[in-house]
Amino acid sequence: MSESKLAGQFFEAAIGLLQRVRDEEAANVAAAGTAIADTVAAGGRLFAFGAGHSSLAAQDVVYRAGGLALMNLLAVPGTVGVDVTPATLGSALERVDGLAGAVLDSSPARPGDVLVIVSLSGRNSLPVEMAMNARALGLKVIGVTSLAYTESTKSRHVSGTFLRDHCDIVLDSKIAVGDAELTHEAVPAPFAPASTVVTSALMQAMMAAAAESLAERGIEPPLLRSGNVDGGHEWNGRVLAEYGDRIFFRH
């Protein structure tokens, strides 16, 4: 079977975007890593939130091999990917006012903690209010979003603002509006989204920067190992026991 021309083009597009965020977002990634390291060193907690497919990047840094054990998923029922039926209900919930505040009020988050909010468009009520409420509670907010949406779409929040407007640090994924990298004359709609690839890379780069910052201070980063390597379960058991009061995997 011959190679797919479009498959190759997608890889090229994804690599190009990864190179852009590596070069153009380096300072913001470093700042986010430092903020996370500051919180870990101060005894604080770490949370990640995303709705719809943006939740995939948030989930990717929670309870995983090579990841910081202290990163917790701040889950909003019904908005984590396709965890409801019909799946379109999740999209509708992203536009509900007041939901973010209720979730934060019932969460273990407290002043001084860090919340990473992932939202490709950053225009829906849920991520906007999540950032607004988190900052009001004294959390530091890191936003991972595409600034292109702020330039060519309208906010769906009553304030007319976007996620980027309520963050202490913003990482721009550079994803174009519509999140589709390819077109074909015989295909009526654009296709091949790259937001998950790029956003997940930004999240992992942020975690790497945090580990580096902690190591430079002489603090061992609380990292998890793979449970599929010898000694992994024992290692993880020690880390989970040591930091159990800052881990909320069941939240």
Summarize the helices and strands and which ones pair or pack.
Elements: H1 5-24, H2 26-41, E1 46-50, H3 54-59, E2 71-73, H4 88-93, H5 99-105, E3 114-118, H6 125-136, E4 140-145, H7 148-152, E5 169-172, E6 182-184, E7 187-191, H8 195-216, H9 232-242
Parallel strand pairs: 1-2, 1-3, 3-4, 4-5
Antiparallel strand pairs: 6-7
Helix pairs in contact: 1-8, 2-8, 5-6
The 3D shape can be described as globular
Structural class: alpha/beta
Sequence stretches where pLDDT stays below 50 over 5 or more residues: none
Biggest sheet descriptor:
5 strands, parallel
Going across the major beta sheet, what is the strand order? Answer: 2-1-3-4-5
Give the topology string: H per helix, E per strand: HHEHEHHEHEHEEEHH
Give the averaged pLDDT, no decimals: 92
Number of helices: 9
Query: Helix content range of the residues, please?
Result: 40-55%
**What's the total count of β strands?**
7
Measured between the Cα atoms of the first and last residue, the distance is 47 Å
